[in-house]
């Protein structure tokens, strides 16, 4: 019995160390030398910007392919814990799509990812390459990103999913860094197994925390937090979309992946992930450019009008 309590105590200690305190992230502006940085805070968003980004922002932003800082991230780790996340080329593309979707509320003209892909053949982002890409795309700023963390820890009754990136917004003509930020978003789940019920609940929660949908939610939190350090864009009118009276599902998702959010804005949590050409019914457009929609299964939520059309 005593040995069992010792094991529970050890597991509890490990769980507390791994999870830390659940709280909103701390934002550290590295332009401000007087801002205090707590050594106890692990959930931190670091950012800084050039004054040009504030006083003379770009008119266009293109999202270039993400790259990996360490080849080991692209392989499953072999350790005492089970790492079930693998950073594949497809997952890199999904992360890029999520980042791209977060640009929608901002007043900058963007370039479709497919168009960027036709121009960019590698992630060798030298100053000359950046200048050439900007010239061909007719875009004055390019957003590049490096994935610094992509892993999960699974202990049976506890799991952690972590995704980290470093982003830089470069002025195309001279590669001046207009803005840069870094952050690691994490999701924890599980419980201390004391009773048989705790074991079942802990196993279920820990398993769900490393599901594909949860990984997407962590990535959503990651990019939402990073881009919150930009200025919020003014509300833009919704064009070309009207509420249909007869056809209940007249709208279609145009993006490869699109978040269905709990409220009209990217600050609201993603409740579900919609696929391209999925049908939606428009219920309300009063929060333009965010639309309240209904899914075919009756679920309600909000999507950005930029990724919705009246035909597939």
Short structural summary:
With 312 residues, this protein is α/β, with parallel strands linked by helices.
Q: Distance N terminus to C terminus?
A: 63 Å
Report the order of strands and helices.
HEEHEEHEHHEEEHHEEEEEEE
Number of strand segments: 15
Secondary structural class: alpha/beta
How many individual domains? 2
| Overall pLDDT confidence | 75
Describe the structure.
The protein is an alpha/beta fold and 312 residues long. The chain has two domains: 195 residues, Rossmann fold; 60 residues, SH3 type barrels. The chain is built from seven helices and 15 strands. Strands 1, 2, 3, 4, 5, 6, 7 and 8 form an eight-stranded mixed β-sheet that branches. The protein has a five-stranded antiparallel β-sheet with strand order 14-13-12-9-15, with no helix packed on it. A two-stranded antiparallel ribbon has the order 10-11. The longest helix is centred in the first third of the chain and has 18 residues. The radius of gyration is 21 Å and the shape is globular. The termini are far apart. The N terminus is likely disordered.
State the main characteristics.
single chain; about 300 residues; alpha/beta; Rossmann fold; SH3 type barrels; 2 domains; 8-stranded mixed sheet; 5-stranded antiparallel sheet; globular; disordered N terminus
Topology, element by element:
Elements lengths: L1 H18 L6 E4 L14 E6 L1 H5 L4 E4 L3 E2 L20 H13 L7 E2 L2 H7 L7 H11 L3 E14 L3 E14 L5 E14 L5 H13 L3 H16 L23 E3 L3 E5 L8 E6 L3 E6 L5 E6 L4 E5 L3 E2 L3
Helix pairs in contact: 3-7
């Amino acid at each position: 019995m005593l040995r069992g309590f010792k094991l529970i105590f050890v597991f509890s200690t490990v769980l507390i160390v791994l999870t830390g305190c659940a709280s909103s992230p701390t934002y550290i502006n590295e332009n401000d030398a007087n801002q205090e940085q707590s050594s106890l805070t692990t959930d931190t968003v670091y950012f800084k910007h050039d004054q040009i980004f504030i006083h003379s922002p770009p008119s266009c932003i293109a999202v270039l392919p993400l790259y990996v800082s360490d080849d080991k991230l692209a392989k499953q780790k072999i350790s005492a814990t089970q790492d079930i996340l693998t950073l594949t080329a497809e997952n890199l593309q999904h992360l890029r799509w999520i980042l791209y979707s977060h640009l929608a509320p901002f007043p900058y003209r963007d370039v479709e990812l497919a168009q960027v892909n036709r121009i960019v053949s590698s992630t060798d982002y030298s100053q000359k390459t950046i200048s050439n890409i900007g010239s061909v795309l007719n875009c004055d700023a390019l957003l590049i990103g490096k994935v610094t963390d992509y892993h999960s820890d699974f202990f049976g009754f506890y799991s952690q999913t972590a995704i980290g990136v470093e982003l830089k917004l470069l002025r195309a003509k001279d590669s001046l860094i207009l803005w840069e930020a870094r952050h690691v978003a994490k999701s924890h789940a599980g419980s201390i197994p004391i009773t048989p019920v705790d074991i079942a609940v802990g196993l279920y929660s820990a398993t769900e925390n490393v599901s594909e949908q949860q990984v997407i939610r962590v990535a959503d939190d990651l990019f939402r937090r990073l881009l919150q350090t930009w200025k919020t864009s003014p509300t833009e009118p919704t064009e070309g979309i009207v509420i249909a009276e007869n056809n209940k599902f007249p709208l279609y998702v145009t993006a490869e992946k699109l978040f269905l959010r709990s409220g009209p804005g990217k600050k609201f949590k993603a409740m579900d992930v919609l696929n391209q050409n999925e049908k939606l019914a428009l219920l309300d457009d009063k929060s333009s450019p965010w639309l309240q929609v209904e899914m075919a299964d009756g679920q309600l939520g909000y999507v950005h009008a930029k990724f919705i059309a009246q035909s597939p």
